[in-house]
Structure of Glycerol-3-phosphate dehydrogenase [NAD(P)+]:
Amino acid sequence: MKAKAQKPRNLAVVHGKRVAVLGAGSWGTTFAKILADGGSDVVVWARRPELAREIQEAKRNSDYLPGVNLPVSLRATARLDLALAGAEQVFVSVPSQSLRENLVAVQPHLGENAIVVSLMKGVERASGLRMSEVIAQVLPIAPDDIAVISGPNLALEIAKQQPTAAVVSSTSLETAQAVAMLATNGYFRSFVNTDVIGTEFGGVLKNLIAVAIGIVDGVGYGENTKASIITRGLVEMTDFAVAYGAQPETLSGLAGLGDLIATCQSPLSRNNTAGRLLGQGYSFGDVVKQMQQTTEGFASVGPILELARAKGVEMPIVEQVRQVLDGTLDPKDIAPHLTTDSDEPQGERTLDDGQAHGGAALWGSLKRAFHQLRNGGRGSLGD
């Protein structure tokens, strides 16, 4: 018998919307649980048949979410055609560097009016494209039928139903709202915005700052160092994203500051863990071997620095992370928050006067976020 789904708070209940989740890693499986607990009819596609069988029959994913019971209603298959059959929304959670080849396999089975949602936080190494741009390039769908989701989303915590929030972004507010309706339940709340650029780059860039935080943590530096790098890291993230057309407010929201805090401070973060191993003296090759899942921050460093140079954006934190990865900088010498072009005192913000007016909007966004927290998450959809 189908388990009774948990009703979303403050939103109309959506019963039985057919959705597919492509990718059965920790985040893909967790998001499938979110959707199923919100009342959707969910099928997960797992590349490995044995993993699909475990999810389907035992309602477990012992490789990625040990100890977590999955919803009885959740189904899984190793066949893409079965996973995608009748799906009105398709959530994609595969390694960013394999997205393009996976989409080629998806295309013949994709419904004509399906919405495609990226759960990934990376850029394609070869092209520098964001995940939504790769989706738009490969699949014959309109940009308004593409959405992205980002935020402080450590998979294991959410799988254990610890309350959190995310932001759904699409160039179409209607699309973002449709996805958010499904991706909301008693422990997970989705807000919406239309700043796809800022939402995606926030999710990418925080990974790089988290690697830096892991490095200094592994070296043994304390909270002052980490707080300085996190704060200056947010400046780099904002400067970069705004240079590419993002709204500065987005970087102070869930996809920017929220994700940055969660990823930098938690041992559950793959990027933080990988950085910590580097700081402890492990070689890059050894770290890659130890990590069971993809460390998106490693793959994104090169493309992000190329994109930054194209816009004349300085990113000393990301640059020093690259040097540590290349073996040209000793981890104990990393101090990107001290890196400047001269010894002259500099302003804390690097944006020019025309862009700096975003500061008021940043503070306003933070106040709204604190107000939402004080009121238990109640309020209008928006981020």
